[in-house]
Design brief:
Strands 1, 2, 3, 4, 5 and 8 form a 6-stranded mixed sheet that branches. The relative contact order is 0.27. β1 and β2 form a beta hairpin. It contains 3 helices and 8 strands, in the order βββαβββββαα. By secondary structure, it is α+β, with helices and mostly antiparallel strands. The protein is globular, with a radius of gyration of 16 Å.
């Protein structure tokens, strides 16, 4: 069973909570929006610490370095295909992050069009955006919405 680890970055703007989500790149997600966005994450390497993986993948996919942020554990969820996702959250003090100025994410290659024999590079993440909590619940993969609920509970208890 594959395991991924990732980070949910959040900020407070005018008293409202906003969550950073990533839209997957590639042809399968090109025209999908609601229910397609995800937390920036990646697969754990053999024997790798999950938190180390989450920070590395977040940095690679967003261009944002969480530096010495305090990571809040959100636990584990299972996606529909069975993949385990371990997640943490952190608050950014920078409420004015310019997402359009961030460098492009890593790429992956895919045979496209199918059975064409041509391998084409696609970005792992083609867009990043901040969403208020209710909108983030609509945008995010349904299996990951539980992470938003856990984050909301954590923040309210602090």
């Amino acid at each position: 069973m594959k395991t991924s680890a990732g980070l949910l970055m959040f900020r407070r703007v005018s008293g409202r909570l906003e969550i950073l989500l990533a839209h997957p790149g590639g042809p399968f997600f090109r025209n999908k929006d609601d229910g397609a966005w995800t937390l920036p994450k990646g697969e754990l390497e053999e024997g790798e610490d999950a938190q180390v993986c989450a920070v590395r993948e977040f940095r690679e996919e967003t261009g944002i370095d969480p530096k010495q942020a305090t990571l809040l554990p959100l636990g584990e969820i299972r996606q529909k295909g069975g993949k385990r996702v371990l997640a943490w959250a952190f608050e950014t003090p920078d409420s004015a992050i310019e997402l359009a100025l961030l460098p492009p994410s890593n790429t992956f290659e895919l045979e496209w069009p199918p059975r064409s024999g041509k391998r084409v590079p696609f970005p792992e993440i083609d867009r990043l955006a901040f969403f208020e909590l209710d909108e983030a619940r609509r945008k995010m993969l349904s299996a990951q919405v539980e992470l938003l609920d856990r984050l909301s509970s954590l923040i309210q208890s602090r």
